[in-house]
């Protein structure tokens, strides 16, 4: 992304408040602190967090909520999974190219059957 945005090393060093060697070392890191990722997102005007949130939606969907049980969590509970257009397109492409069957998609990604069939009817009508 740095190359694509043509960000110079001086600008990166000033914005990140790091040396060139420290920035180069960051490229080799397996993981980065969220504050560092946020700074990169701001510098490059790209939402790196979206990559992770889409991964979580795709591979670890929210568990079904029990309606009669009160939640003791102080965190907000989402009532519905949020699938981005990119995820929907990816899933439908898997089916269209026959890399996965509808049943495999339902089982592997925990997408409700009705949701998948709604996507198929809705997005295939547009094409």
From TrEMBL:
InterPro entries: Homeodomain-like_sf. SUPFAM superfamilies: Homeodomain-like. This is Transposase. It comes from Chryseobacterium rhizosphaerae.
């Amino acid at each position: 992304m740095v190359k694509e945005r043509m960000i110079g090393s001086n600008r990166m060093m000033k914005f990140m408040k790091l040396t060139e060697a420290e920035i180069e070392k960051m490229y080799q890191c397996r993981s980065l602190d969220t504050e560092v990722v946020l700074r990169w997102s701001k510098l490059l005007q790209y939402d790196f967090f979206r990559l992770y949130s889409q991964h979580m939606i795709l591979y670890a969907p929210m568990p079904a909520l029990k309606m009669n049980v009160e939640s003791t969590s102080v965190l907000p509970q989402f009532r519905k999974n949020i699938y981005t257009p990119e995820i929907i397109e990816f899933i439908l492409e898997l089916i269209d190219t026959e890399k996965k069957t509808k049943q495999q998609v339902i089982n592997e990604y925990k997408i409700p059957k009705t949701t998948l069939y709604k996507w198929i009817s809705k997005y295939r009508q547009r094409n």
